[in-house]
Amino acid sequence: MKHYFLLLALLGLLFSSFRKDEKVITVEKVRCEFLQNPEGIDVVQPRLSWQINTNQRAVNQTAYQILVASSQELLAQNQGDLWDSGKINSDETIQVRYAGKALKSRSKCFWKVKVWTNKGESNWSETASFSIGLINYVDWKGRWIGLDRSFAWDNEGQFSRLSARYFRKDFTVKKKLKSATVYIIGLGLYELYLNGQKVGNQVLAPVPTDYNKGVKYNTFDVTNLLQQGANAVGSILGNGRYYTMRQDYKPYKIKTFGYPKMLFNLDLVYEDGSRETIVSDDTWKVTADGPIRCNNEYDGEEYDATKELGKWSQSGYVDTSWLKAQLVQEPGGDHEAQMTANMKVMQTIKPVSLKKLNAQTYILDMGQNMAGWLRLSVQGKKGQKVTLRFAESLQADGSLYVRNLRDAKVTDIYTLKGEGTETWEPRFVYHGFRYVEITGFPTEPKLEQFDGRVVYDDMSDAGKFQSSNTTLNQIFTNAYWGIRSNYKGMPVDCPQRNERQPWLGDRTTGAYGESYLFDNHTLYAKWLDDIEQSQKADGSIPDVAPSFWRYYGDNVTWPATYITIADMLYQQFGDAEPIKKHYPSMKKWAMYMAEKYTENGLITKDKYGDWCVPPESKELIHAKDESRLTDGKLLATATYIRVLQLMQKFAQTTDNLKDVASFSKMETDYKNAFNQAFLKASNYSNGTVTANLLPLVYDIVSAEEKTKVAENLIQTIVQKNNSHISTGVIGTQWLMRGLSNLEKGDLAYTIATQKDYPSWGYMVENGATTIWELWNGNTANPEMNSANHVMLLGDLLIWYYQHLAGIKSRETAYKYIELKSDFPKGLNQVQASYQSIRGTIESQWKKEGNTTTWQVRVPANSKAIIYIPSPDYQNITEGGKAISQYKEIKIMGLSRAYTILEIGSGSYSFEFKI
């Protein structure tokens, strides 16, 4: 990764040197509703966004024009028959709402944009498109079909085994076809085929929801997959979260929804203007006696190639032995367009070693903890079975360590058909693993017969980070792999054991840090919908959403994620819609907690404490030493005060101005009670780092006490904890930024780069390639030592970008950027980039002796304020010249520590002495 980054940087500099005098202004990354492939959306006034690309400095948009047409031909002629905005005097490039003719179900729209700037006019952008899905319930034709029964080879006990259902139907395209569009809801998971070809490259689709509240449909343009005359459609339904992994087990806790089912519409538009819809109904045929004998997210998939069905999804297949599809009860949830990307095989990696454990058993090492599955190629006799069992780590004897997987069986079985080289990978499961135990392989296996298939939501990388400290770099890489492992249509806690649940508390601040690495906007916008759908009528929000597990604990710290992620989407992506959409539900929860759990001015209910504080013994899961533990009332009340601060902001955003005053008064009252209850001798409660940190970062501490509380905080970290981390999930959400904001960036850097217990570096030193669930995940009780969690990252990744690279949004969504690095002692170089919603931001600095070079890039139509850590502005140069020679560089202020400059868009190279 290091070499890749350096090569990328060199290529970027080379490219810039060739184009530095170029005056071209182009419009790129033209997107609708922040979606890369917006097919079948259910928003009739979608928001449009674009980026300006140019090598000129200080470029600002002054106007734009958008054309939206009903055909590519009209758009090519610059005819916006749906909307011609005309020239709009505005500098906005994101969140521009469509304001043309009313759009209806099945509308297809093509659009482009051009801009005017202070440096010139662009050409039209490339054409982008979006389509409207089936907005109304009555737009769906046909019926839900399925098989509401199991078969002799199935098992519906605690460890469920249910075979996949195969559906098919022949149909005729009667005339010359103009277009064909599929709309499908396949629960729990589906694969769709037309004339033997798979539709799309998605896997594990659709994304999971609480199916009693909402079910997602996918839309595909399939015109090129059909032919005039005879055609066939086929689908395979897997179990997913719909047919629950654990039937007949803790029904009070685990939701079940029923047997797999499907709703399908294929809209055909003929060239003569006539239309026809092929629908799901009881004319379809179905069988469960196919090769996928069972599929279960916890336990694996069993595939019997001797049961393959031949050309079952092609026209003319003889299906007389198949059953008639049943018309079944529809799920309770509303039909919703899926506004986030499906999962996909995002990378294929090769294993690094294959070792023989005994006569029948081999251990494959991928070299990286990952989430996905294994693809194999094998030759053998009909009926031979290859068994694959997955784990994150090994025992001392080289065999799999599986105790931390609890009762998840994590086993795939492939039965050979005996016909030459057979290549197979599962369809409806995923595993979290680094190692694979292989048994029953017909011949001696070789490395080249296996591939690791990395699976997560189809989203682009947003950020790169590299530094002169190898520990920092490996932690970043581990975080990257851990985050992508746990994006599964929703953010889950872990990908390997019998849990894999979307815990809210894991992402309270984590989602913010993740947004610097991945374009996770639509994933988290969808998750807010999941949270709202899980809310009870009285206002209660669960700890897990969708609420596949019924965990309504009524604490503050986990459900507060509903509020903090909405704020993150606004701050990082400029998206206020989640705030507007969810404000009533957020307010309901906030008032519910206050009314139900306030006593003596404090919120009394807390469930988890500062979860996963580093324990005093490496063998413990949780600390028992009370001096390490923070009062639950303090955690709950401090977090609730933060909620009230954000609710005031949200009330302003949504024009609920009366609520601003109400929430402000509540904040003041809770602060007063908090300080009266917990502050003694400039320490809060028992003086844990978390106890003193939260009042500082949430502005609860009075001005008179702030310095002393901060001093006690630092003293505790340095003296009691030997400059190591001592916070759990709650405190770690603010630890690194809190220290940097107290001008203790050097201490934050020391904590980040520690290599002994407890630290992120301790994980690295002990061979971790992802982030552990516990600080002592290599020694604690096995039932909770997942090696692939992200909750302990806290605000570390935010700190990487905001305080090491120095990239921060001063205003919403990087319209005005703050560039301010801690430049900590001991760190000599940082290279970072972030693909913001407005364009690429880069920050690269390097210390050589007492001279520092800082190269930055600000996207067009943005500006930045940059803090140069030298008060001697006359000796600061840019490109070898004094900064006073550039009109696009303005001196905004001087202090004892900084020269503060404002710069326009473009690339700059500053040199100064520290």
From TrEMBL:
Residues 355-456 form the Alpha-L-rhamnosidase concanavalin-like domain. It catalyses: Hydrolysis of terminal non-reducing alpha-L-rhamnose residues in alpha-L-rhamnosides. Residues 461-803 form the Alpha-L-rhamnosidase six-hairpin glycosidase domain. SUPFAM superfamilies: Six-hairpin glycosidases. Keywords: Hydrolase. The keyword Hydrolase applies. Gene3D superfamilies: 1.50.10.10, Galactose-binding domain-like, Immunoglobulins, Maltose phosphorylase, domain 3. Residues 175-346 form the Bacterial alpha-L-rhamnosidase N-terminal domain. Its EC number is 3.2.1.40. Residues 806-881 form the Alpha-L-rhamnosidase C-terminal domain. Coiled coil: none annotated. It is an enzyme of class 3 (hydrolase). One of its GO terms (molecular function) is hydrolase activity. The keyword Hydrolase applies. It comes from the Bacteria. This is alpha-L-rhamnosidase. It comes from Flectobacillus roseus.
